[in-house]
Automatic annotation (TrEMBL):
Keywords: Ubl conjugation pathway
Domain of life of the organism encoding this protein: Eukaryota
Protein known as: G2/M phase-specific E3 ubiquitin-protein ligase-like
Organism expressing this protein natively: Cyprinus carpio
Domain HECT: 39-82
Taxonomic classification: Eukaryota, Metazoa, Chordata, Craniata, Vertebrata
A GO MF label: ubiquitin-protein transferase activity
Length: 322
């Protein structure tokens, strides 16, 4: 019997004690600060239910424990802030961990792993911005295939394509000598007998740059992921932290189910026309983010619904009045 991601998360969430509640006071203008205060509170426990109060909503108490809406919004915003922390580098959707001395002093790598675990188990999204190679490494499934364009360092980003594009053995030797210091630092400076070895040199350097030279902080991050048994579940199921699928017009179209008037009525005719306009609008927005006037709404749909493992494989029940 195949186990689904919702099944995995549901099993992990059995450790949550719904009778014990811990409150988070969060400002949408500074989500990270509120999260740090909440997680560092001495009474906090990841096995307690989360009650989120957004302080932006003056006089309104959002009961996150009842509906989960504020909690999921908070965890969604938290994951979005996390991907931009200085502990990560790399292009959008392919981020990897890098050493940062200040973050090490603050133990941010462990805390980042812990916050990811809390988000997934408490019904929020996972960190679907991580590179596949990092996720596979964390899951104990080394399968390194990182492309050169993951490197954001300008000098290294130019050196590796030079090696990769060497057309002859002499050109490869010359290129390796030109970048010998960089290659020697990574343990990749060696004798080559054929020009085809250039691919192995580039691959070895990328593995050193992304994984090996950051192994100490990756290990600390992994320790944080052991919270709520996420790391244990990740080993056989790396898709828990896999990159999120691209959001399509069809995904949004089926997300909402209209509550239509009786068939044959004048109002039903207008509703059908409106549904056609809505479908056309989604198609027009495809590949053109600038034309979307409700981008924030789409953004919330994307992160809170499509990237949360506990919602994967379920049918949307959002109903829109006709």
């Amino acid at each position: 019997m195949d186990i689904t991601l919702p099944d995995i998360v549901a099993n992990l969430s059995l450790t949550i004690d719904h009778k014990r509640v811990r409150r988070f006071n969060i400002s949408r203008a500074n989500v990270w600060d509120g999260a740090v205060r909440g997680f560092k509170r001495t009474t906090y426990s990841e096995t307690c239910e989360m009650l989120v109060k957004f302080t932006d909503d003056i006089g309104v108490l959002e009961e996150g424990i009842d509906t989960g809406g504020p909690r999921r919004e908070f965890l969604t915003l938290l994951m979005k802030h996390l991907k931009d922390r200085p502990i990560f580098d790399g292009p959008e959707g392919h981020r990897f961990l890098v050493y940062n001395a200040n973050a090490v002093r603050e133990d941010e790598y462990y805390l980042a792993g812990k916050r990811i675990s809390v988000s997934v188990v408490h019904g929020g999204p996972g960190p679907h911005f991580l590179s596949k190679d990092l996720v596979h490494y964390l899951a104990g499934q080394p399968s390194f295939k990182a492309p050169v364009n993951l490197i954001t360092d300008e000098e290294i980003g130019k050196a590796l394509p030079d090696i990769e594009n060497a057309a002859s053995l002499d050109a490869l030797h010359e290129c390796m000598m030109r970048h010998s210091t960089m290659l020697q630092t990574a343990g990749c400076l060696r004798h080559v007998a054929t020009v085809e070895e250039k691919r192995e040199i580039v691959s070895d350097y990328l593995q050193w740059y992304i994984i090996d030279c950051n192994s100490s902080v990756i290990d600390r991050f992994r320790e944080g992921l052991s919270t709520l048994e996420i790391l244990t579940a990740l080993h056989p199921h790396p898709t828990l932290l896999a990159p999120a699928p691209a959001l399509t017009a069809f995904d949004l179209e089926i997300l909402f189910k209209p509550d239509l008037s009786p068939s044959g009525s004048n109002r039903r005719l207008k509703e059908s026309q409106t549904m056609g306009y809505w479908a056309d609008y989604l198609l027009d927005c495809k590949g053109r983010p600038g034309c979307c006037v409700c981008a924030r709404c789409f953004d919330v749909c994307y992160w809170a619904v499509f990237t949360s493992p506990i919602w994967l494989g379920t049918t949307a029940t959002n109903r829109v009045p006709g």
